[in-house]
Amino acid sequence: MAPPADGMDVDQPEKTGLFADLFFVVVPSDSLPESKALEVVEQLKLHDAEAVVDSLDGSGTLSLDDLTHIVSNTADFPEYYNADDKMKPVVKAQWIEHSLAKRKLQNPRQYSPDPKYFMSDVVVCCTGLPDGDAEAVQGAVLAMGGMFSIKLTSQVTHLITLSIDSDFCQTAAQKRMNVKLVLPHWIDDCVRLGRKISERPYTLPASELHTATPSTKIPYVYGATPVRGALDANPTSSPPPSPSVTRKRQSVFRNTKVALSKDLGVAPPHREALEEVIRNGGGKVVNTAAQCTIFVCKYREGSEYKAAARAGKHVGSLGWLYDLISKDRWTSPFRKLLHYPLAPKGIPGMQDFKISVSNYTGESRQYLENLIRACGAECTKTLKQDNTHLITAYDKSEKCTAAKEWQVHLVNHLWLEESFAKCKVASVSNSRYTHFPTRTNLGEVVGQTEIDREVLEKLFYPPEPDRIDDRSSDITKVGLKRGNSKTSNGNDVRTPAASRFVALEKENITPSTTNSRKAKNAATAKLQEMTPDIQLYEKERKRVGGVIHGGRRAKTSEEPSEAAEAPREAARKRTADDMDDSDAAAEAEKKKKRSKTGLPPVTMHLLVTGYDRWKDNPKAEDADKIALRQLGIILVNEAQRATHLAAHRILRTVKFISAMAYAPEIISTDFIDACLDADELEDPQDYKLVDKVQEKKLGLSLTASRERAVKNRGKLLEGREIYCLDKANGGPDTYQKIVEANGGSCIVYRGRKGVRVKSYRAGSEDAGSANTDVYLLSPEGDGNDLTKLWEQFRSMVEAARMTPRIVSTDWLIETAMRQEILPVSKYEIRE
């Protein structure tokens, strides 16, 4: 073959590898050492990619605009947020292996090292769950960054199930697969908290949710905590960390210029030591924010701070600088709350708060106490009646009981962290802050909240007035746009829902000052791509009862706390992008079949109590729930959600009594039998509950009680505090549910000193002399302990110029059943 003529190009062989035309940068880290990073580069090149190893510390000649992907097992490298702003995918090294194994590029979001995708190392498979529950679990896991498989493969890390009797569970045991068998309650609690908590209490076969008793101590996982090295924003009293003589030379400051602000308050000897450590690590100490790449200061104020923040410099606290030195590893100052400079006046509205901490230990407790002070609130070592908040890792302790008794706000640490992150007092009515998983110590997940970068820019370094107009056309703030937009196929995208998701899960999006129109378009495309997952996640997160329904059975049968969850409406179906072809084919077949025999619309939310068919027979219960859902009936466990209440007779159970406040249609459990036997939806009007014997015995009419409930609208006890002795039959939790269902508040009374009766709300509908009665629910008896408590209660109430009423628990039960406040003469207890 003749050589080519001069000046003519030689045809290059066409690149056909999976990664052809892609440019990767591999960032080394502790979990991806440089030797391994070089191997990854060679693997990428074998499949026609361009790839290099680079630390991306911002000092090299490599531009983010030139590359297509970043491979890193951590989000802690200097250019991470710039890459995120420019929509450059950052993926773990595992993404390469899985893409090659499945011969197609995988969804990068499922392999992101960003902590906001806290399920990114989880692959879930469901077995033995109703279809609607399995789909809800799938949607939640995908939205949290995990993956879902419809088949049990070697990649599955968690098998979500209610029982170990299913075929998948047996297969996993026989093949000795490395997979955890976990109750769906784990997914539910992770969604509610927005954090990945330990699977330990939910793991079958010996789940603590089934085996633990109320007195069983909740264990705490000791060891390194996420807040280590981030306990204090300004540790001026301690000398700076210094590498030992035998330690290798530090590299974290290589190619950096560090400016130390004058507001740090560091003593001259300490400051000199800091500067020496920086220089020994390859860095340079400069005097102004204009010269530096790292600016260290105490407060978010002053011209130097604003200039550094606006220019995209790395701005952090002294505590952050100490952490860089001690670990010799880069971490972003946005990652830990106290690694960023403090708000000079604390968090608006928190100056009058008195906050105590309970059930957090060691570093977690120290961190929370420092965070309270950084917010401008007072941190108290002990809990007193004048405290405003108690932050606790779980809600079963003497302090928690006292807080409820004194009407002190009981919240988890997320309330404090997110108030600080957004520089705004979070609402204590948000269920995320009052959720305490049954067997979990939330100290395990303390310190995982990041600073909200958008809030920082808005409040502390907004654009200079003469630059706002120049930036407005280029800056894209993902998720904050209001109103509707259109996708490329013409479908509506509800951006308000998307913005709520971003605010919850992505707390650190700040647009780069150099964003181009291309970045804006990419942001819109990314938002549209995420919208289905966002909407599904929001739907499942906000739904009462969470993402699952099945298997929540109390260890006792029917009395006070039945915990069997009910099926939920089928969630939107969504297939994971990472499924292989066989998975996708199986899911397509599943969808095709369901399109012909799809679930009917929900026509009834049914609350069931005292149903003998399900007593001690959980398998029959699960099967019947699935069959009822096929008929349009969803079983619920919350009285406020029920449109119908089913019982075989009038019962004095918590479910029945609480449901009366919401005026559901009351039907016989014969209705359930008839629907199941006929395999079709019967008319509930034909099965209205008739129980003349119990009506006569209790002196009530179900029809009249329901009519009064409609008028009361759940406000029968509104504005009232009902006190209850912890020795009351069934325990105070029983009566708390009944009182709260009727709009009141229930307080456990133990005769503590300093407890005071609060005045009833002025202007309540039944204000007047009758509303000065204050009730104490008590067992009958003449023991010395009871007599003493009665006397203390009377003294407390009379001191408030009100009338004490010590009554049996029957007064509350029959008041709630009749839906009218009954006179106390029949129920009052006297010595």
From TrEMBL:
Pfam family, one: BRCT
Bias (Basic and acidic residues): 565-577
Domain BRCT: 14-113, 114-204, 248-329, 350-433, 606-689, 712-829
Example of a GO biological process term: double-strand break repair
Gene Ontology cellular component annotations, sorted alphabetically: Cul8-RING ubiquitin ligase complex; nucleus
Family annotation (InterPro entries): BRCT_dom, BRCT_dom_sf, CellCycle_DNARepair_Reg
Region entry Disordered, spans: 231-251, 504-599
Domain of life: Eukaryota
UniProt-recorded name of the protein: BRCT-containing protein 1
